[in-house]
Design goal:
Blueprint (H helix, E strand, L loop, with lengths): L1 H132 L2 H55 L2 H27 L3 H32 L4 H24 L4 H26 L6 H27 L14 H8 L35 H11 L5 E10 L5 E8 L2 E8 L5 E6 L10 H14 L5 E9 L2 E10 L2 E13 L5 E5 L1 H6 L12 H5 L7 E12 L3 E12 L2 E8 L5 E10 L2 E4 L1
Parallel strand pairs: 7-9
Antiparallel strand pairs: 1-2, 2-3, 3-4, 4-8, 5-6, 6-7, 7-8, 9-10, 10-11, 11-12, 12-13
C-alpha cells in the first residue's frame, strides 16, 4: 500500500520534472524562431527599403526626364509661338500695306472719276446754257454745221470700215494660202487617203465649233443689255403714248367752250406733259437731240396750266389764248407724226442698244430740233415762255465791253484761283449777251460768262472735286457772301441753303427795308471740303434788280396768319416780294411751319389775303428741296 503510494508520488514528480523542462526548450525554440523571423523581417524590410529607394530614385529620374522633355517642348512651343507671331505680324503688315495701297488706288480712281464727272458736268452745263440762249439763226447754223460734221464723221467711219474690211480680207487670203500650202505638204507626206480624211474631219469639226461660237455670240445678247434695251423701249413707247394723249386732250379742248371740261382737259394735258418729259429724259440720247422735244412738251404743260389758272381766277380765255393753244396742238401733232414715222421706219422694233449715226430713231429726234422754228413763239407768264428771251434787263448798266476787257475782268474776279491758260471761248446770245471765258485752276476747268454790258459775272462753273464736308452752313454762307462782295453785290442775305454731294447751294436774295426781294435771286455753290466758291448763277438777279418802291401791306401779320391753315404750326413770318410769272411781283407774308411732320412755306398776298404759293420741304438724295 505504502509502495503503491510511493510509486504514485514518484510518477507525479517525474511528470512534474518533465513538465518543467519543456517550457524552457519551447522558449528556446520560440526565441530562435523569433530571431529568424526578425532577421527575415529585417532583411525583407531592408530589401523593401532598397526597392523603395530604387523606385524613388527611378521616379525622380523619370520626373527629371519628364521635366527635361517638358522644358524642351516649352522651348519648342515658345520658339514656334515666336515664329508664328513674327509671321503673323509680317502678314498683317503686308496686308495693311496692300490695303493702304488698294485704298490709295481706289481714292485715286475715285478722284479721277469725280474729276472727269465734274468736267463733263461743267461742259454739259456750258453747252446747255449755250443751247438755251442761242438765237434761231445761230441754232439753224449750228444744226447745219453739226449735220455736216456728222455726215463727214459717218463718211470717215465708212472709209475706216472699208479699210478694215480690205485688211481682214487680205489676212483671210493669206491664211487660206498658208492652210493650202500646209495641206499640200501633208498630202505629199502621207500619199494616202488616211491623212487626207483626217485633215477633212479635223477641219470640219473646227469650222462647226467656230460657227457655233459665232452664232451664240451674235444671237444671244447679255442680260444687262436686254434689261437696258427693255427700259429704253418702255420709255420710248410711253413717250409715244403720252404724246398721243396730249394730242387727244388738246383736240378736245379746242372743240369745247365749257369751262369745266376745259379744266379737265388742261389738267390731263399737264399730267401727260410731265410724264412725257420724264420718259424723254430716260432715253439714251444727247442733250441737244432731245432738248427741243423736251422744251415743246414742257411748254405745252406750262401753257395749259397758265390757261387753267386764268379760268380758276374767273377770267375768260381770249382769242389769242386759243390761237396759242392751236399752235401748240399743231406742233404736238408734228411730234406725234414724227414718232409714228420712227416706229414705221423700224417696223415697230426700236433698238437703242444698237443705235448709231444711221439709226432712224436718232435721225428722227435730230429732225425734231426744227420744231422750235416751225411754230410761232408764245409770250405768256410761264417758266417755259419764249417771251423770256425778250424780257427787259433791269440790273445791267454801263458801256459795252470788248472780249479782251471781259478776259481782264475774268482774271480780276478769279484772282485767288491760280488761273492758267485763260482764253476766250466764244459768245452767248439771248436775254443777256455774254462773252464766254475759260481757264484752268489746279488742273480743273473754270468756265464763266461775262455780260457784254457792264462786264458783270452772269454765271460760272468750276469742275473741282469735293470729297468731304469740312465746314458748316454758316461758314459756307460767309465764304459765299465774301465772294459776292468782291463782285460788288451788296444788300443780299442767304434765304435758302442745301447740302448735296458735299456741295452747299446757297440762294441769296436782295433785301430792302426788311423785305426779302425774291426776284433778285443769286445762287452760289460752295465746296464743303475746301470752302471754295465753285459756281454762281446771277441771271435772275441782273434781269430783275432795280430800285423798287416796296408797297405797304394792307393786312397785318396776324390777319395774314389767319389765312393759313390752322393745321400748320407756324414757326417764322416775314414780308417778301415774290415773282408772279415773269411780268409782275406781289408783296406777301412768308410763313414757315410744320404739319404732320413736314415743313411748309406759305405765301399770303399782303394786299388781298389770297394764297399766292405754297411749298413743301422734301428730303431727297439731292438734299433738301422745295416742291
Amino acid at each position: 500500500m505504502e509502495n503503491k503510494k510511493n510509486n504514485a508520488v514518484e510518477k507525479v514528480e517525474n511528470t512534474i520534472k518533465k513538465t518543467s523542462k519543456k517550457p524552457s526548450q519551447k522558449k528556446s525554440a520560440v526565441k530562435k524562431l523569433t530571431s529568424n523571423k526578425e532577421k527575415a523581417r529585417k532583411e525583407k524590410q531592408l530589401k523593401a527599403q532598397k526597392l523603395k529607394q530604387e523606385k524613388i530614385a527611378k521616379k525622380e529620374q523619370l520626373k527629371e526626364e519628364k521635366q527635361k522633355i517638358k522644358a524642351e517642348k516649352e522651348r519648342i512651343l515658345a520658339q514656334k509661338r515666336l515664329e508664328t507671331a513674327r509671321i503673323k505680324a509680317h502678314k498683317k503688315a503686308e496686308k495693311e500695306k496692300a490695303k493702304a495701297q488698294l485704298l490709295r488706288e481706289k481714292n485715286r480712281r475715285k478722284a479721277e472719276a469725280q474729276k472727269r464727272r465734274q468736267e463733263i458736268k461743267a461742259e454739259r452745263d456750258a453747252r446747255r446754257e449755250m443751247l438755251k440762249n442761242e438765237t434761231k439763226k445761230q441754232r439753224e447754223q449750228r444744226i447745219a454745221q453739226e449735220k455736216s460734221q456728222k455726215r463727214e464723221a459717218v463718211a470717215q467711219k465708212r472709209r475706216e470700215k472699208e479699210e478694215r474690211r480690205k485688211q481682214i480680207a487680205q489676212e483671210k487670203r493669206q491664211k487660206r494660202e498658208q492652210k493650202h500650202n500646209h495641206r499640200q505638204k501633208r498630202r505629199e507626206q502621207n500619199k494616202g487617203i488616211g491623212g487626207w480624211l483626217a485633215a477633212v474631219i479635223s477641219l470640219g469639226i473646227a469650222t462647226l465649233v467656230l460657227a457655233s461660237v459665232l452664232t451664240f455670240n451674235f444671237l444671244t445678247p447679255t442680260a444687262e443689255n436686254t434689261i437696258l434695251e427693255s427700259a429704253y423701249q418702255k420709255s420710248f413707247y410711253d413717250t409715244v403714248e403720252q404724246v398721243d394723249n396730249i394730242d387727244l386732250n388738246l383736240s378736245k379742248a379746242l372743240a369745247t367752250k365749257d369751262e369745266g371740261a376745259l379744266q379737265k382737259y388742261f389738267v390731263d394735258t399737264a399730267i401727260n406733259s410731265e410724264l412725257a418729259e420724264n420718259d424723254l429724259q430716260q432715253l439714251p440720247l444727247h442733250d441737244e437731240s432731245k432738248f427741243y422735244t423736251t422744251k415743246l412738251v414742257n411748254q405745252i404743260g406750262d401753257y395749259v396750266k397758265y390757261l387753267n389758272n386764268k379760268i380758276i381766277t374767273g377770267e375768260k380765255l381770249s382769242e389769242q389764248d386759243y390761237q396759242g393753244l392751236n399752235q401748240l396742238y399743231r406742233a404736238n401733232k408734228t411730234l406725234k407724226d414724227s414718232l409714228q414715222k420712227m416706229m414705221s421706219a423700224t417696223s415697230g422694233r426700236v433698238s437703242f442698244m444698237k443705235m448709231n449715226d444711221d439709226n432712224a430713231v436718232l435721225e428722227g429726234f435730230e429732225k425734231l430740233q426744227n420744231l422750235s422754228v416751225q411754230y410761232p413763239e408764245l409770250i405768256y407768264d410761264g417758266p417755259f415762255s419764249d417771251g423770256l428771251d425778250k424780257r427787259e434787263i433791269k440790273g445791267l448798266s454801263g458801256e459795252q465791253i470788248t472780249k479782251e476787257q471781259a478776259k481782264e475782268e475774268f482774271v480780276k474776279m478769279f484772282a485767288n484761283y491760280d488761273l492758267k491758260d485763260v482764253d476766250n471761248a466764244g459768245e452767248t446770245s439771248g436775254d443777256i449777251e455774254c462773252y464766254n471765258v475759260e481757264a484752268t485752276s489746279d488742273g480743273q476747268l473754270l468756265y464763266a460768262q461775262i455780260s457784254k454790258q457792264g462786264g458783270k459775272l452772269i454765271m460760272f462753273a468750276y469742275a473741282g472735286t469735293c470729297e468731304s464736308v469740312n465746314c458748316d452752313e454758316d461758314l459756307a454762307s460767309e465764304k459765299a457772301q465774301e465772294f459776292l462782295s468782291s463782285l460788288g453785290i451788296k444788300s443780299v442775305k442767304p434765304v435758302w441753303i442745301n447740302l448735296a454731294n458735299n456741295v452747299y447751294t446757297i440762294n441769296f436774295a436782295h433785301v430792302k427795308d426788311g423785305v426779302v426781294v425774291y426776284p433778285d435771286l443769286i445762287k452760289v455753290r460752295v465746296c464743303a471740303e475746301t470752302q471754295t466758291v465753285i459756281g454762281l448763277e446771277a441771271r435772275s438777279y441782273y434781269t430783275n434788280h432795280t430800285n423798287r418802291e416796296i408797297p405797304s401791306p394792307t393786312l397785318t401779320k396776324s390777319q395774314a396768319m389767319g389765312k393759313v391753315s390752322s393745321g400748320i404750326s407756324i414757326k417764322t413770318a416775314r414780308l417778301a416780294l415774290v415773282p408772279v410769272g415773269t411780268k409782275s411781283e406781289k408783296l406777301c407774308y412768308e410763313f414757315s411751319g410744320e404739319y404732320d411732320g413736314s415743313t411748309y412755306y406759305v405765301y399770303i398776298d399782303a394786299i388781298s389775303g389770297r394764297q399766292v404759293e405754297m411749298f413743301k420741304v422734301i428730303e431727297s438724295t439731292e438734299g433738301t428741296l422745295l416742291m
